[in-house]
Write the structure tokens for this entry.
Amino acid sequence: MIVITGGAGMIGSMIAWHLNTKLGRDDLMIVDHITQDAQWQNLVHRHYVEYLDRDQLFDFLEGNDDVTAVIHMGAISATTERDFNKLVEANIHYSQDLWSWCAENDVPFFYASSAATYGDGSAGYDDANSDKLRPLNGYGYSKHFFDQWVLRQTPESSPPVWAGFKFFNVYGPNEYHKERMASVAFHTFNQFSETGTMKLFKGTKAGVKDGEQLRDFVYVKDCANIVAHFFSAALTKKPAHHSININGIYNIGTGQARTFKDLATNVMESMGKAPHITYIDMPADLQGKYQYFTEANMAKLRKAGYNTPMTSLEDGVKDYVQNYLMQDDSYC
């Protein structure tokens, strides 16, 4: 049985999609804590054994010897979350407890980190263990703290196989419940459909033109494929305890930064429309806490044996818009 926390979330539900449709696995335990009204729809096309609330998981795991792997995508993912105590409990303590259970029970453990750990990018984007990283918000710090805690664990106190994934700007199906935290691709589709224009931030930093802030936009299907690759490698190699060499923290991006203008333009063109963009001032709560550039260094992931090309922005946006957002049923 494969436990997927955050399994009703965007990335978690798409990992479940990949396991169902590409690997033929339906022995999934979906764990989440649904708070948005329509989020349950991320599960309607999935095949799985059971759904548990996050607070039921450890009771389920106690004495359970049927778990093949834990894929831990559950977390508070809002970069604007101000209650740091909530972030500590959900993003650090819960993750530490799952890690410890996997270590004690010899179960592979894969978890979501974030590119938010890199802060303003002044220390680079090289998935390195660096005390120089300074996240710009509490969410990013909670992810960075857990990454650093993981790297301090000895082999004897670690799961037999583990990997953390620093997801960059993920877009794609099943993000519809994320409200403000949904991708600019999703917001572009909705805003342009309703108003005939898309609002992007003005270039408030020297040298940055309007709408030309740069991000490494990664399609969610690529994220799911990468996690499944590590899961499959762990099962295929069936290593002796602590002997596998893929353990580590990896960037999950494309390795090519693109502008928000590029993203929005591709969405509108995929809708069969002439693009129209309106530039607005950046909200006060984002000023000083905003990443103007992200670009994943993908060398470590490639060295670990993942050689599948990443989906281009043009192809990913076209698939997302035409095969999901423009359909009556937009869920994957």
User: Anything to note?
Assistant: The first helix runs from residue 10 to 21.
